[in-house]
Amino acid sequence: MGKLTQRLSDATRSGVYRSTGTAEIEDAVRGTRLDLAHVALGGVEDKDGLLGRLAQALGFPEWFGGNWDALEDCLCDLAWRPGDGHVVVLDGGDALGVDDMGVLVDVLSSCAAYWAERGRPFFAVFVDPQHALALPELFRAKGAAA
Fold first, then answer.
1. Helix, strand, coil shares of the chain as percentages rounded to 5?
2. Does residue 25 contact residue 31 with C-beta atoms inside 8 Å?
3. Residue 146 pLDDT more than 50?
4. Nearest Cα to Cα of residue 112 among 124, 100, 127, 126
């Protein structure tokens, strides 16, 4: 088991992170009991578009209410998703407003804490090759400067 696989399997390390790409994450999850979901946020500019894209990518149930509270409710349930833990990769989202991005990160952080308390990993990872987001790195790519 590689270091990234170990990290993603460790509920105590659950949280919201950034990464420069997705290939290493996909490799780390392959062959595990972790559920990997990709959320393409390209072109999303507002809360409604964001919530719709998340609902579609994660297969939210019909009762999803399309608001921040309902997002948190769904992310803290995920009974319809397979796996012993969850890795949500969010790609794009450059057009999303600062306020909406801030609330999204807060909701994801709250859900990560919820799952960690229950001993199940939950990782939300923003693909951020420009290091624009003030989030910790999920991992240091091989050959990256220290």
1. 40, 20, 45
2. no
3. no
4. 124
What residues does each domain of the chain span? 25-127
Q: Which CATH architecture has domain 25-127?
A: 2-Layer Sandwich (3.30)
Q: What are the residue ranges of helices labelled H in 10-97?
A: 23-29, 47-58, 68-75
Contact 20, 127 (CB under 8 A): yes
Q: For residue 74, give the nearest of 43, 116, 34, 114 by alpha carbon.
A: 114
The average pLDDT across 114-133 equals 96
The percentage of the chain sitting over the pLDDT mark of 90, rounded to a whole number, equals: 91
Question: Do residues 75 and 107 touch, judged by C-beta distance below 8 A?
Answer: yes
How many Å apart are CA 103 and CA 96, to the nearest integer?
A: 11
With beta carbons less than 8 A apart as the criterion, state whether 17 and 125 touch.
Answer: yes
Contact yes or no for 50/96 (Cβ under 8 A) = yes
| Extended strands (E) in the chain | 15-19, 34-40, 85-91, 122-127
| pLDDT, tens only, 63-112 | 999 999 999 999 999 999 999 999 999 999 889 999 999 999 999 999 99
